[in-house]
């Protein structure tokens, strides 16, 4: 299994409604992209995230599935639609035993 973790640092001007729209769009990716085994996302509540406010965790069945995710039209559409809301994004990918 492959774990794909993403953190989004949002602009100060982002509204609660925009955050919810972003979360809804992230959740919708599971039904649109083959190879996603599990997807979870949410807003940080701990205050330990160094300004990164939305987190995403996606589990893929294989590295090939992760590689197909990046250029997938649904993933690209998410980025094009929501990237104006964030100042920074970080991602980390690793394989689990």
Question: How would you describe the overall organization of this protein?
Answer:
The chain is α+β, with helices and mostly antiparallel strands. It has a single domain (2-90), classed as Alpha-Beta Plaits. Helices cover 35% and strands 35% of the residues. The chain is built from three helices and four strands; from the N terminus they run βαββααβ. The protein has a four-stranded antiparallel sheet with strand order 2-3-1-4. The chain is globular, with a radius of gyration of 13 Å. The mean pLDDT is 96.
Short description:
This protein is α+β, with helices and mostly antiparallel strands and 97 residues long. The chain has helices spanning 16-32, 63-69, 73-82, and strands spanning 2-10, 36-43, 54-60, 86-95.
- Reading the helices and strands in chain order gives EHEEHHE
Beta strand %: 35-45%
If strands are numbered along the chain, what order do they take across the biggest sheet?
A: 2-3-1-4
Number of strands: 4
Q: What count of helical segments does DSSP give?
A: 3
- What is the CATH topology assignment? Alpha-Beta Plaits
Between the first and last Cα atoms, what is the distance in angstroms? Answer: 7 Å
Largest sheet: 4 strands, antiparallel
Low-confidence stretches: none
Q: Indicate the overall shape.
A: globular
How many whole angstroms does the radius of gyration measure?
Answer: 13 Å
Task: Report the mean per-residue pLDDT as an integer.
Answer: 96
The CATH C-level name is Alpha Beta
What structural class is derived from the secondary structure elements? Answer: alpha+beta
CATH architecture: 2-Layer Sandwich
């Amino acid at each position: 299994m492959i774990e794909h973790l993403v953190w989004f640092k949002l602009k100060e001007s982002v509204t609660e409604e925009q955050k919810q729209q972003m979360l809804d769009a992230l959740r919708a990716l599971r039904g649109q992209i083959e190879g996603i085994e599990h997807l979870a996302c949410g807003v940080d509540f701990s205050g330990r995230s160094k300004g990164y406010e939305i987190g995403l965790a996606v589990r893929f069945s294989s590295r090939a599935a992760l590689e197909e995710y990046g250029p997938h039209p649904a993933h690209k559409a998410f980025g094009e639609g929501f990237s104006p809301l964030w100042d920074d994004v970080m991602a980390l990918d690793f394989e689990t035993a």
